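Handout for the seminar on molecular recognition.
Each group receives one record of this type.
Step one: identify the two inputs.
Step two: read the structure output and locate the region that could contact adenosine-5'-diphosphate.
Step three: write two sentences on what you found, then compare them with the reference statements printed after the record.
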Amino acid sequence: MKTIVLASQKGGAGKTTIAAHLAVAAELAGDSPCVMIDTDPQESLVAWWNCRQSETPAFAPSTLKELSEKLEALDKAGFAYAFIDTPPAITESIRAVVALADFVLIPTRPSPHDLRAVGQTVELAAGANRPFAFVVTQAKPNSRLTVQAMASLSEHGVVAPSIIHDRVDFASSMIDGRTVLEIDPKGRSAAEAVALWAFVKTRIKENNKKR
Ligand SMILES: Nc1ncnc2c1ncn2[C@@H]1O[C@H](COP(=O)(O)OP(=O)(O)O)[C@@H](O)[C@H]1O
Ligand SMILES: [Mg+2]
């Protein structure tokens, strides 16, 4: 089983939204079964999953203390990918979660505030010696800021070529336990979620080969 951790110092960057969308995209791509874990005390991902009709992806409750053992058990149970959502801060507990990751994805809005906070998140992943990449989220269409954000992020590490744009369907899908992949499977937002999963999966495979 491969473990993907969503992390960023900034709240509202899109960690929870992307965790849910990646897990559903992975299931739909046949990279299943997938399981999600919420380590954020605000439990946004739990709330989303509780509203959800579909039985996949699975959800595994876990305290931070038991996380490592839980991941081992989920691996033994045959899960292919685990997606872990984290709270927006750099704390010892997040360090412990990141240390368990096969891959860390850092959602970042193309805003000066988010970009300034990126260094700390990078230090978190790089310090733990975990492979990581950025994804630009909530990007406004045709915005110069997006291009600038991708350029400045690329100085710190790999940037996913698949941008997640700011669209109402990303926000509204999360209200009733769905994702854009279920609301409008042929829409532009769904295509972005699919492309992001393809990127993450490829990066994990490449990092595997290197080791
Ligand atoms: N691509 C997007 N387009 C529009 N709204 C988004 C998008 N991604 C996230 N949001 C909204 O932005 C807010 C923060 O997203 P969330 O995933 O909860 O961030 P985090 O978990 O990093 O705090 C939520 O209200 C969410 O619905
Ligand atoms: Mg969140």
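Reference statements: The mean pLDDT is 95. The pocket of magnesium ion (ligand 2) is lined by residues 15-16, 40, 44, 85 (CB under 6 Å).
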